[in-house]
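Look over this entry.
=====
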Amino acid sequence: MKTLIIMRHAKSDWSYEVDDIDRPLNDFGTDSALKKGIEFKKVKLMPDLIMSSPANRAYSTAQLFAKNLGYSQKIDICNEFYNGTENGIIARIAKTSDEIKTLMIVGHNPTWENLTYLLCNEKIFISFQTACIAVLISEINTWKEVKQNIFKIEYLFNRIE
């Protein structure tokens, strides 16, 4: 069995005049990412690996979430997660080592919403607000088997107000 945790980055700060990839989190986003780590502990599910978009807001979300979750391993940067396509993300997930049972990916909309819809056998569209987390499970034994319609939604964490 494989578990895929999909998280959208927390709320970013549009007041800075920086390139999109460099946009930071705002105070609410920072707080949300930290709170999500604490909230997620209740599920008692620790990722074996966290992969993040290289965008500042996504990587910062991953770091803050991981800190409060108690995840102390390296967070991998995946360039494919920034402006990538759903099929490109699926192809990247398929390259994950099979030693990894629980994989967490942190990135952006609309790709994350569409990816979740494609991967799940329940055809329910989930609106990924900032810092939204969907936990998907599948009976597959290897990440190479990742394809459309093979996961089911186990948990959904929406934004903390």
Observations:
- The chain has one domain: 2-157.
- The chain has a mean pLDDT of 94.
- The two ends are 33 Å apart (CA to CA).
